[in-house]
């Protein structure tokens, strides 16, 4: 029984140590947006491709919510903004296991404010 408790505590300790505990400010670059109009093809799609489509595509664990094209991303912007702006440690934060930079998050916000320009 003591051996089982020791193994359990060891596993918990490894999980706790392995968790990312950096603050949002530490992982963001706070670079101001320099583009006049944010466009899906130039600014948003590269972020989605690098951080989202691994899960949010056919065959991925989040294939029920694909983000592989302009319409899917535009139609899900509220959910995307909700998830990418959550604090670290929140189980609903996206992307899982990481965080977008403040600049990347601001690009999504400005893209919405600019009227979802595609090209």
TrEMBL record:
* Record keywords: Heme, Iron, Metal-binding, Signal
The positions making up the signal sequence are: 1-18
What SUPFAM superfamilies is this protein classified in? Answer: Cytochrome c
Q: Where is the Cytochrome c domain?
A: 39-116
Keyword Ribonucleoprotein listed? The answer is no
Give an example GO molecular function.
heme binding
Stated name of the protein:
Cytochrome c domain-containing protein
């Amino acid at each position: 029984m003591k051996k089982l408790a020791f193994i359990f505590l060891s596993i918990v300790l490894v999980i706790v140590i392995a968790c990312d505990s950096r603050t949002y400010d530490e992982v963001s670059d706070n670079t101001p947006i320099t583009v006049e109009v944010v466009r899906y093809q130039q600014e948003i799609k590269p972020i989605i491709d690098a951080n989202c489509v691994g899960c949010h595509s056919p065959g991925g664990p989040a294939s029920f919510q694909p983000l592989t094209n302009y319409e899917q991303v535009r139609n899900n912007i509220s959910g995307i903004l909700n998830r990418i702006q959550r604090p670290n440690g929140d189980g609903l934060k996206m992307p899982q296991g990481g965080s977008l930079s403040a600049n990347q998050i601001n690009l999504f916000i400005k893209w919405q404010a600019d009227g979802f320009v595609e090209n």
